[in-house]
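Request from the bench team (R.T.):
"We need a structural guess for the complex before ordering more magnesium ion. Sequence and SMILES attached. Just send the tokens back."

Command: build protein-magnesium ion structure.
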Amino acid sequence: MRNQIYILGKLMEIVIIFFVIMTVLFFLFRLSPGDPVSKVVDPMLTPEDTQYLIEQMGLDKPIWEQYMVYLKNCSTGNLGVSFHYGEPVFKIIKERLGWTILLFTSSTVLAALVGVFLGKISAWNKGSRLDNILSISALVCYTLFIPWFALLLLWIFGFKIGIFPLGGILSPELWVTNSSWFARGLDILHHMILPLITLFIINLGSYLLLMRSSMLGVLREDYIITARAKGLSEKVIRNKHAAKNAALPVVTSVGLSLAFSINGGALTEQIFTWPGIGRELIFAVSNNDYPLAQACFLLIALVVLLANFIVDMLYAYLDPRITH
Amino acid sequence: MALISIKNLSIGYQTKGGLLKAVDNISFEIEQGRPLGLVGESGCGKTTIGMTLMGLLPDNARILSGSIDFQNHDLTQLGEDQWRKIRGKDIAMIFQAAMNALNPVMRVDEQVIEAIVTHKPGISPGDLDKRVKELFDLVEIPRIRMKDYPHEYSGGMKQRVIIAMALACNPQLIIADEPTTALDVIVQDQILQEIRSLQMIMDTGLIFISHDIAVVASVCRDICVMYGGQIVEMGTREEVFGTPCHPYTKTLLGSYLSLNNEWKVIIPTMRKAPDLTLKSGCCRFAVNCKICSNAGTSGIPSWINISKTHRALCCSEGIIRKKK
Ligand SMILES: Nc1ncnc2c1ncn2[C@@H]1O[C@H](COP(=O)(O)OP(=O)(O)OP(=O)(O)O)[C@@H](O)[C@H]1O
Ligand SMILES: [Mg+2]
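Reply to R.T.: structure attached below.
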């Protein structure tokens, strides 16, 4: 029961934060210099269509009424029509979202798992050659310039060696032929590897360093000495007692770092022409497609909020001290 | 025959400022069923001795000389694998009831189970369950609390669990390092009762480490007083606390009991910390000792036998005998 109340509270929190973000976005877009109509309605439309849209979004009304209309539209998924595509933004975004989630989730989970494992080894062998190599590599990963690294990968593996495609998600021949789901899945995986590696490497460094420092802290805790005093083997102490406790802060940081990895993700999507939200956002911003950009921002905010919610739940499950 | 006998043990810590002789040439024996108390102020090397007897010295510590005979083994010569078989099984340690001497993400009973299973891998589930319940009964924790997490326990209960873990394999020697320091007076008293009665029931050897003379006096039959890494006086409880001989013992008692004037003379107004880098064999209390500064002694102390069991390490035999 207490758990349900907690979850409900958390969800309420998300709704409120999302509402705030929605509001901020609304005013950011409306209050920037220029005619509001030009930002919401495609300049290429006929006057009749323009008039229809202006009325639908209440652009001829005072700003707070526009705001109410905007809120209502948002809540029903009516986010306007993209200038460029001439299609409802909602529909465009819906198609992109899955690809972004696929790429982000897999790279984040993979990076967190490997980071935790390597960080654990690194801390356990503190001061050794292995530790030095791992820490320095992690630092390099952490400070990598994303576009440079992505292009380097693309150049080496896509162009020079040619074992991976240069971009996209599916080979053209699989689009046209009636290929099996399995073949398509494999092909998507093949396309995903380079962007996945890029995001993986970029995230890996921070997870490794975080796990390492967390583990070093845990190894100084009294319960590690207690574990030693029982005569447990080093492996049990390391994996069962130390690593489990040390991994807790990493779980939290997965949620936090997600928000920060959005821009890196957008660049990665852009370079590998991965049809996700990030790429769409870059496209929308550089083409003044305001409705599309706004929707991308909203959706990214929503995804980050939900991811944080999941991480919170996971953390509560892993750490018995969190009681709701 | 003594359960464990320590001969001429010296232990050093490698530090930036050179070798720190935290324990200097100490010898004592422990009889089964005769609790021995190690008293002395903070930093005098009590924990260092305890950790040595568990084979848990930190990496920068080294045994410089001496031997520890236990069950026909010299513990100073053991490798990590051999230590692991002794730790928790033959020699167990009760740590200070610090907030996190128990692993926060493991259920309490699992931590006790771990202490048993490590040394009895073949134990049947039924026997294991019986033993765990027995241990919780022994330390008077209700069985319904067995499955709790440590944060749900009070400080006193945590300490009881730690005692239960130490008793899990019926060890022959228990080292209790300030087991009641972090507890409030009432709980402190209960835990002392517990330790006293358990020691009596199980008839184990016990080393009780504390800076609190009253606590040590209530538990131990034999007393070793330590100063600056040296044992300066040893004897039965009655001898050491009834007729203290060494100037430091008097200081120590003086700082607890109301003083008589004779003792006050010895207590210097300014206390200097003992110099642990001093050459082995020098009296470390000399810098603070009125006897030494008045009589201009050599600074090289020797053991002065006051009775068959009572002796003191001092430079000035005459004064020790006279004061008695
Ligand atoms: N890992 C270490 N490295 C260097 N010096 C150390 C280390 N551990 C302890 N020492 C030093 O060794 C001396 C003895 O320390 P120890 O912990 O054995 O004292 P103690 O009698 O247990 O004190 P307390 O009553 O405060 O627990 C102290 O001077 C301490 O500074
Ligand atoms: Mg200590």
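Two things stood out. Chain A is about 80% helix and 0% strand. Chain A has a mean pLDDT of 86.
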